């Protein structure tokens, strides 16, 4: 099969558009596009981080990608490769990255995503099915099933604010899920959505306990218990011993 090399920028744009689709992740991507017609003064005004200097590399470049530098150690880098074959797309991953990664085929973990195969977790697929059958919006993406911080947020805009705030306050490694429900889902749909989140949250214990943040765009007179339908689900989980 023929292959065509692509630039780092194109590769990252593909990841940004088709894989990192949640707003909470997309909002943290930063890069500056530079062309022969670029106004440098305007570009640095829009992207102040461009004025930072890293080391002292200089020279004439034909193609380059400008990104904010994130200080890190060599052992914190990892390697990811996605390539297409007749049977599907292969994803290679190795915990060692950088220019000296070596023989990737021999060391990396390899995963095949067959043609038309779905990657969704069963719980994500369940919510997606509810969403498809409803006139409302029900979304759920599992980020870290062992995470400590879970959210149940009403409204797409509110879900972005909640997730970004958690990350800004240092909880990015403990954020377990990203999602939202809106558009006036029925009581049963809200119950099923809450039951799924609580079931995921209570599957494993955490030494420091777990946190469920419930919120959204509500008025000061809103009955939270009635609106978010959380009490019934909690009582059901307590009865079967899933809440400690």
TrEMBL record:
<dbReference type="InterPro" id="IPR032263">
    <property type="entry name" value="Citrate-bd"/>
</dbReference>
<dbReference type="GO" id="GO:0005524">
    <property type="term" value="F:ATP binding"/>
</dbReference>
<dbReference type="InterPro" id="IPR017866">
    <property type="entry name" value="Succ-CoA_synthase_bsu_CS"/>
</dbReference>
<comment type="similarity">
    <text>In the C-terminal section; belongs to the succinate/malate CoA ligase alpha subunit family.</text>
</comment>
<keyword id="KW-0547">Nucleotide-binding</keyword>
<feature type="domain" description="ATP-citrate synthase citrate-binding">
    <location>
        <begin position="122"/>
        <end position="231"/>
    </location>
</feature>
<keyword id="KW-0597">Phosphoprotein</keyword>
<dbReference type="GO" id="GO:0006629">
    <property type="term" value="P:lipid metabolic process"/>
</dbReference>
<protein>
    <submittedName>
        <fullName>Atp-citrate synthase isoform x1</fullName>
    </submittedName>
</protein>
<dbReference type="GO" id="GO:0003878">
    <property type="term" value="F:ATP citrate synthase activity"/>
</dbReference>
<comment type="similarity">
    <text>In the N-terminal section; belongs to the succinate/malate CoA ligase beta subunit family.</text>
</comment>
<dbReference type="InterPro" id="IPR016102">
    <property type="entry name" value="Succinyl-CoA_synth-like"/>
</dbReference>
<dbReference type="Pfam" id="PF16114">
    <property type="entry name" value="Citrate_bind"/>
</dbReference>
<dbReference type="GO" id="GO:0005737">
    <property type="term" value="C:cytoplasm"/>
</dbReference>
């Amino acid at each position: 099969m023929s292959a065509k090399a692509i630039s780092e920028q194109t590769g990252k744009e593909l990841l940004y558009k088709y894989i990192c689709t949640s707003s909470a992740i997309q909002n943290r991507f930063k890069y500056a596009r530079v062309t022969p017609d670029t106004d440098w003064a305007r570009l640095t005004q829009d992207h102040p981080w461009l004025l930072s200097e890293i080391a002292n590399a200089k020279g004439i470049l034909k193609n380059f990608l400008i990104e904010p530098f994130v200080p890190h150690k060599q052992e914190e880098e990892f390697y990811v490769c996605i390539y297409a074959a007749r049977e599907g797309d292969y994803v290679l991953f190795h915990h060692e990255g950088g220019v000296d990664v070596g023989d990737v085929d021999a060391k990396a973990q390899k995963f095949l995503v067959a043609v038309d195969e779905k990657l969704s977790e069963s719980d994500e697929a369940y919510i997606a099915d509810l969403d498809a059958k409803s006139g409302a919006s029900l979304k759920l993406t599992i980020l870290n099933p062992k995470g400590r911080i879970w959210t149940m947020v009403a409204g797409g805009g509110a879900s972005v604010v909640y997730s970004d705030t958690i990350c800004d306050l240092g909880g990015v490694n403990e954020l377990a899920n990203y999602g939202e429900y809106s558009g006036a889902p029925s009581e049963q749909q809200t119950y099923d959505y809450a039951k799924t989140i609580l079931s995921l949250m209570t599957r494993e214990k955490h030494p420091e306990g777990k946190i469920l943040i419930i919120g959204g765009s509500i008025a000061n007179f809103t009955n939270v218990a009635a609106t978010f339908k959380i009490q019934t689900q909690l009582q059901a989980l307590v009865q079967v011993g899933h809440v400690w």
